[in-house]
Amino acid sequence: MNPVDDPLEAVTFSYVAALENLATALTGRTQRSPDGTLFAMSGAPIASLNGIVSPLLSPDVSQISSLTSLAGAQRLPWSIRVRGVPDRDVAEVAAAHGLTRYERQPLMTLSSRSGALRELTTDPLRVRALAADELVLYAETVAAGYQVPREVFHVLANPSLKLEGFSFYLAELKGVPVGTGMTASTGGQIGIFTISTLPEYRRRGYARMVTAEIVRRGFSAGADAAYLHAVSGAAESVYASIGFETQEFMTVITAP
Fold first, then answer.
1. Which ranges carry the N-acetyltransferase domain (predicted)?
2. Distances from the Cα of 53 to the Cαs of 34, 91, 182, in angstroms?
3. 185 within 8 A of 83, measured Cβ to Cβ
4. Residues 145 and 240 occupy one common structural domain
């Protein structure tokens, strides 16, 4: 399949490359199949950051199946991720490994040439890029934003991520951390990840502001487009208000 047949090929392969870079920096546990299907383990106890992902519109179940033994041996939550609705063969491979819970995540994109990025003021919110020695603070703030134990996101404190195209941003009010955002730069695209707001600062538009600001910085640095996966309907609405458009969705298959 070529980009004419699949207009999102550049986006989905960039997403897979970002996951590969993440795992390369954190654990070194990655493997690619000939068609681009990826096995990658971040080491975090988060199923969506471990396992197998296919960038193809029509995933090759044999390639997915060949990687399941690697994923299953890691003793961490893991997932199989495919575009659109998994066919019966993919579902059977997933079920054979206890993966029977399905989550649909909209894939949203925004072109740097579209002129659709909404202008949002960040005053008095300050969004700043973090240095490698500040990533412990980042990981702790992400965990607080998602309301999970800090150990869940401890892998994001690894300074080597800065060498693999990842950038980390902290949103602050008068020096107090209130939110986060992370970008991954691969193939002329920027992926947007870990957008979070601390519970006591929600419903003030900070997630919108952080997302818009880090996308703007990515475009200024030369990225052609931005992409993200919305984890809820509410999140999808927030990103749409900035200018992102839903193109399709990814199915994440995990254990119940």
1. 125-256
2. 13, 14, 20
3. no
4. yes
In contact, 55 and 69? CB cutoff 8 Å: no
Phi, psi of 109 (to 5 degrees): -135, 160
> Is the residue at 147 inside a domain?
yes
Structure tokens at 237: 């609405």
Shared domain check, 144 and 67? no
Sign of CA dihedral 21, 64, 34, 231: negative
β-bridge pairing 101-111 and 245-254? antiparallel
Phi and psi dihedrals of 7, rounded to 5? -65, -15
- The sign one gets for the Cα dihedral 206, 208, 211, 213 is negative
Query: What is the tens place of the pLDDT at every residue in 93-148?
Result: 999 999 999 999 999 999 999 887 876 766 799 999 999 999 999 999 999 999 99
Distance CA 43, CA 19 (A): 12
Determine the Cα–Cα distance for residues 167 and 7; give it in Å rounded to an integer.
Answer: 26
Residue 112 lies in a domain: no
Interval 178-199 mean pLDDT = 98
- Note the pLDDT of residue 122: 64
Kindly report the length of the chain: 256
Closest CA to 189 of 107, 81, 110, 114: 110
- Say if 3 falls within a structural domain: no
End-to-end CA distance of the chain: 33
Task: Examine residue 2 and state whether it is found in any structural domain, yes or no.
Answer: no
Range of the domain at 101: 9-106
pLDDT tens track for 197-215:
999 999 999 999 999 999 9
